[in-house]
Amino acid sequence: MTKQYYTTIGLEIHAELNTKTKMFCNSKNDPDETRPNVNICPVCMAHPGTLPVINKQAVEHVVRVGLALGGNIADFTEFDRKNYFYPDIPKGYQISQYKYPIVSGGELALPAQAGAVKITRVHLEEDTANSKHDRGDYSLVDFNRAGVPLMELVTEPVIHTAKEAGAFGRELQLLLRYLGVSEANMEKGEMRVELNISISPDEKVFGTKVEVKNINSFKAVERAAEYEIKRMSELLDAGRGSEIVQETRGWDETKQSTFSQRTKENSEDYRYFPDPDLPKLKLKEVFGENFEKVKALPELPSAKRARYKNDFGIKDEDIESYMTDMELSNFFESVISDLGSREAIILASNFITSDLLGILKINSTAKIPDYQSFSKLIKMFAGNELSSRATKDILLMLATEGGDPMQIATEKDLLQKNDEGALKAIVEKIIAENAEVVAIYKAGKENALMSLVGRVMKESNGSANPQLVQKMLKEQIR
Ligand code: ADP
Ligand code: MG
Q1: Atom of ligand 1 nearest to the CA of 156
Q2: How far is CA 144 from the centre of its chain?
Q3: What is the pLDDT of residue 265?
Q4: Which has the closest alpha carbon to 130: 116, 140, 138, 121?
Q5: What spacing in Å lies between the alpha carbon of 386 and ligand 2's midpoint?
Q6: Which pLDDT value is given to residue 2?
Q7: How far does CA 251 lie from the centroid of its chain?
Q8: How many helices (H) and strands (E) does the chain have?
Q9: Exposed/middle/buried for 59, CB within 10 Å: 0-12, 13-18, 19+?
Q10: DSSP structure class, residue 127
Q11: Which atom of ligand 1 is nearest to 155's Cα?
Q12: Residue 196 CA: which ligand 1 atom is closest?
């Protein structure tokens, strides 16, 4: 039986930034380039005599991330050399930030009232090249990625469950995308999460932490944390706590387990010192009059969630469908401005989250429809021109073939029949054909009436107004 241990997690997250060129040179920053070593130049290949120039756009991105997190934006910031020797780092050092990061402090609130995670810092550095070690007796290095602007965010050790660690990663990804600073795709390595984790029998004393790398999805962040909690708990339970050492471990996706890679180096090993080739930055001077523009942020995920909840009372679960699907969210935003009225927007959202999403899921050819046609459809439904059944049928057509909802409704005779004259014949027919059900209803079974309503609806291809049908049936059967 495992004893109770307290889990502590801190995350270090890298994200490749969206810029035209690399961090310190004019080589293209193109994560989709598949040919090796084409986006390179003497600067990012560290030829002697070359000098780096700071990419302002990258600095701007990190400033905006810092503001979105409510962090402190440095007045003064500088770049340092982090020295180590490895083939993926042509200069023999990586330009990073040590003492004076662009952002200090701040926090990121997790959705669904899961609390907020405190941020230690966000700094800017350059990415390394890509090494491929799967060739047997030699390795290959692709320098396209060398020198790409990379943001590093470090959290405080304030996360306590595997789920929260995953949730933090997802929420940060969303924020980076909303800010437009990074695509932050984990599978493509545009966002990389390193998991620092320890457990301890004493809530007030940290245990020895291990750092887990090579994690390529948010699910894997959770799995790796769960794996480490179990591994370390078992060692502590067995009185083998001394075997938990501070080290870097790798995540093996196939085995769903971690393995020891190397014992961790200390920051002293890197011999950090300010890069003499780069100017120190006073951000106010760097951005000058444009600083206000840089600081203007778009609506952030937390604000959007609050707006959907407060303005339209949308369920948390449905809100998340919009949050994670930008195309759907943009569609809904257009529908909101097109419809204007709160009631109509709520109806629209219900049709989107319960019907349209279902259609998109099962029908591979279906697309999000044109927002104007969709709004028109909702207005027709709200104005009693279409039954809910007919609205859903037309929605399916809009999503698969497109078209004009009024035209479709007219052609397929789906317009709701709201006048008794148009329905009289159908109602009489159903009564005549269902003498047994009518008798049951007459004997006092209210449910039987609904069965008759259903038959009239079916006979009218869903075009009858159900309330009206009910009233007419009651009047006819007496
Ligand atoms: P290092 O010097 O080993 O890089 P840092 O103090 O810079 O360690 O922290 C790196 C990351 O590890 C941060 O996200 C921090 O929150 C987290 N961390 C620090 N101590 C612990 C611990 N005992 N357990 C879990 N995470 C920790
Ligand atoms: Mg560190």
Answers
A1: 16
A2: 27
A3: 66
A4: 140
A5: 61
A6: 63
A7: 22
A8: 17, 17
A9: buried
A10: P
A11: 14
A12: 26
Angle among Cα 244, 245, 251 to the nearest 5 degrees reads 85
HSE of 205, CA atoms in CB hemisphere, 13 A: 5
Q: What is the dihedral of CA 54, 56, 62, 65, to 10 degrees?
A: 180
Q: Residue 94: CB within 6 Å of ligand 1?
A: no
Q: Is the CB of 154 under 6 A from ligand 1?
A: yes
Atom from ligand 1 closest to the CA of residue 266: 2
- Give one word for 466, left, alpha or beta, with left for phi > 0 and alpha for psi -120 to 50: alpha
On the 0-12 / 13-18 / 19+ scale of CB atoms within 10 A, 325 is middle
- Which structure tokens are listed for 213? 């790398």
Measured from the CB, is residue 88 less than 6 Å from ligand 1? no
Q: Are strands 210-215 and 247-252 parallel, antiparallel or unpaired?
A: parallel
Establish whether residue 427 lines the binding site of ligand 1, counting it when its CB lies within 6 angstroms of any ligand atom: no
200, burial (CB in 10 Å: exposed 0-12, middle 13-18, buried 19+): middle
Q: Which residue type occupies 51?
A: L
Atom of ligand 1 nearest to the CA of 246: 3
Q: Which ligand is nearest to the CA of 13?
A: 1
- Kindly report whether the global pTM for this prediction surpasses the value 0.70: yes
Element (H, E) at 409: helix 405-411
- Those residues of the chain that have pLDDT short of 50 are none
Tell me the CA–centroid distance for residue 231 and ligand 1, in Å. Answer: 19
Query: CA 436 to CA 235: how far, in whole Å?
Result: 74
Which of 152, 160, 196 has most ligand 1 atoms within 8 Å of CB, for mutation?
196
Sign of CA dihedral 81, 86, 91, 96: negative
Only one residue has tokens 């309330």, namely: 467
In the chain, the amino acid numbered 260 is S
CA torsion angle for 163, 169, 171, 172 (degrees, to 10)? 160
Rounded distance, CA 406 to CA 425, Å? 25
Question: Which atom of ligand 1 is least distant from the CA of 12?
Answer: 14
- What would the two tokens of residue 224 be? 């790796």
Phi, psi at residue 81, to the nearest 5°?
Answer: -95, 130
Is any atom of ligand 1 closer than 6 Å to the C-beta of 12?
yes
Ligand 1 pocket, 196 CB below 6 A? yes
Ligand 1 pocket, residue 225 CB under 6 Å? no
Q: Residue 351 has what DSSP assignment?
A: I
Which ligand is closest in space to the CA of residue 121? 1
**pLDDT tens digits along 107-135:** 999 987 779 999 999 999 999 999 998 88
What is the longest distance spanned by two Cα atoms in the chain? 101
CA torsion, ordered 195, 108, 113, 354, to nearest 10 deg: -90
